[in-house]
Amino acid sequence: MNFGALPVAEAEGALLAHSVRQGGLSFKKGRRLSAEDVAVLRAAGIGSVIAATLEPGDLHEDEAAARIARALAGPADGRSGAKVTAAFTGRCNLVAEDRGLFLVEPARIDAVNALHEAITVATLPAFEPVEPRQMLATVKIIPFSAPAAAVEQAVALLEDPSGREPAARVAAFRPRQVGLVQTALPGTKPALLEKGRSALDARLSALGCPPAEERRCGHDAAAIAAALHELQDAGCGLLLVSGASAIVDRRDVVPAGIVAAGGRIAHFGMPVDPGNLLLLAELDGRPVLGLPGCARAPKVNGFDWVLQRLIADLPVAPADVTAMGVGGLLKEIGGRPLPRAEAVEGGAGEDAEAAGPKRLPRIAALVLAGGQGRRMGGPNKLLLPYRGEPLLRSVVRAAQESDAAEVLVVTGHQREAVKAALAGLAVPAVHNPDYAEGLSTSLKAGLAALAPEVDGVVVLLGDMPRVEPAVIDKLIAAFDPLEGRAICQPSWHGKRGNPVLFARRFFAELKGLGGDVGAKPLLADYPELVCEVPVERDSVLADVDTPEAYRALSEEAAKGIPQR
Fold first, then answer.
1. Is residue 458 part of a domain?
2. Per-residue pLDDT averaged across 98-105, rounded?
3. 359-391: string of b/e by CB count within 10 Å (b at 16+)?
4. Strand extents, DSSP E, 133-192
5. What domain count does the chain have?
6. Residue 63 near residue 87 (C-beta atoms within 8 A)
7. Cα–Cα distance between 527 and 27 in angstroms, integer?
8. 3-state secondary structure labels for all residues of 342-389
9. 329 lies in a domain?
10. Domain MoaB/Mog spans what residues (predicted)?
């Protein structure tokens, strides 16, 4: 890759390394300069730019990041429980599709990171509990390109021909019925047993399991054995024993009760504090845990680490327990800036704190389908046939197939007919009674109906059926208000189109728009926050406003030109 000052006259096809702002001109770094861009720069009196040009053997940063991320996630068969997002600015993320534990092979990640300074892969720690849409890993290409040979080496390291699991994946939680034995000694307060039961049920609920099936008995081996057999007969797949007195030896009362039931003690003790006194055992193929006293408390302890793995159907052997020492000091330390119990979950929006898990931004897709379409001269254009279905249906399906967290349709003109055209798509609709007053009223009605936790909205026009899910995904991948990308708009050969993604911070201004003008004024007011996202097809420019436009669309479909 060549990098440095480049005469503007020679800059077509180069990637801007530094943003250019002069007067009303605003080109952001990373922009691939088109012939039109070069003409604009020359007209503005700019003679040279700092830019990068790719050489033979270089891969563009987005292509390189995407290839490595796909190899990291493994085959696209759902086995990894992770999804690869669209690449933008050399970054491609893996996000969770399931609730579960994140699994990763550090040696393979380290080997990739050691290949070339242009290539980096960062992941969550192994066995981190994750939620759907939470980020698991990010592949970032540092400069504007990476050597194709190094990328191929990275892919080879991550793609395992022996058929092992992907290098990064999510082991989904598999809810099951858990059995709990609680023992009591003379003087044991019922409140203590209730506290233990309540803490366990809270843990199980967080993992998607029903409340525990419980038995209470005296603190002796025979009683424990009988209680374990009752829970076996009740169909419990995981058995827990919480003793009135802490286990202090593998021959103590609780392990003796497990052995009396026919069980086997696998390991006693763990290098996690709190949680040292955990007992690992097995009974007729079922895992059995003797619980440490800290299991009665809600704070994270070693029992949580083992419970999470078992609910995720991951085997827990003595070697797994003894390997938990690094990072196993969970006790609160006065020098910690933020105690674990006080940590709060963060988001991906512009006010997110670094303390919480990073997730894919929650972007809603708003499909505007309330207009009268007067320029069509009669029929409702949204109901016209296109590739064997109503034109609007194609737009809504694209939104549903994208990374948008939710999809909402705004109806207006011919409300019932529009809703009928979407039958079977399970998409909620909100009606705009003021549709005759223009596009802005549909936008206002849709924004008012969005969930309060969305980070932004991508606004789709109901008469643009050629827009692909990949376009929406690219806008979401580009969205990052903290880096100045709060409005994301697709562009084809330098021409901006639709749909457009807006951060939540603009919702109030969008609601304040009037008439039939849409959001163009907002784009003009915040040029420094607008990010142009290059796309590969002109679908972002093609709306169906007139009979001529519809005829052209139909002719294209008849010729078999792929829509997506």
1. yes
2. 96
3. bbbbbbbbbbbbbebeebeeebbbbbebeeebb
4. 135-141, 145-147, 168-172, 178-184
5. 4
6. yes
7. 10
8. HCCCCCCCCCCCCCCCCECCCEEEEEEECCCCHHHCCCCHHHCEECCE
9. no
10. 179-312
Q: Is residue 194 part of a domain?
A: yes
Q: What is the mean pLDDT of the chain?
A: 90
Whether residue 314 sits in one domain with residue 182: yes
pLDDT tens digits, one per residue of 352-401? 434 467 788 999 999 999 887 777 767 889 999 998 899 999 999 999 99
Q: What mean pLDDT do residues 434-447 have? A: 92
**Region class of 96: left (phi > 0), else alpha (psi between -120 and 50), else beta:** beta
User: What does pTM read for this prediction?
Assistant: 0.84
Q: Does residue 348 sit within a domain? A: no
d(Cα 465, Cα 448) in Å, to the nearest integer? 25
- What are the Cα distances from residue 200, in Å, to 120, 127, 209, 313? 40, 20, 11, 18
Helices of type H across 207-337: 221-233, 253-260, 302-311, 318-322
Q: What is the length of the chain?
A: 564
Q: Count CB neighbours of 273 within 10 A.
A: 15
Distances (CA, A) of 475 to 154, 368, 409, 483, 530: 27, 18, 19, 14, 11
Q: What percent of the chain has pLDDT over 90?
A: 72
Q: In the chain, pLDDT over 70 holds for what percent of residues? A: 93
Helix pair 61-73, 148-158: axis angle to 10 deg? 10
Q: Using an 8 Å Cβ cutoff, are 217 and 227 in contact?
A: yes
Residue type at position 91: R
CA 77 to chain centre: 17
Q: Are residues 64 and 22 in the same domain?
A: no
First to last CA, the chain: 32
Distance, CA of 119 to CA of 67 (rounded, Å): 12
Only one residue has tokens 């990052």, namely: 480
Give CB contacts under 8 A, 24+ apart, made by 313-322: 313/171, 313/174, 314/101, 314/103, 314/171, 316/280, 316/287, 317/266, 317/267, 318/266, 318/267, 318/280, 321/267, 321/270, 321/271, 321/278, 321/280, 322/267, 322/270, 322/271
CATH number, domain of 69, equals 3.90.1170.30
Helices H / strands E in the chain, number of each: 16, 30
Give the CATH number of the domain where residue 422 resides: 3.90.550.10
Task: Tell me the C-alpha distance between 229 and 57, whole Å.
Answer: 66
Q: Give the range of the structural domain holding residue 466, as residue numbers without chain letter.
A: 363-558
- Tell me the residue type at 232: Q
DSSP β-bridge partners for residue 324: none
Q: Which residue has the higher pLDDT, 419 or 515?
A: 419
- C-alpha 168/C-alpha 145 separation (Å) is 24
Task: Give the whole-angstrom CA distance, residue 269 versus residue 247.
Answer: 9
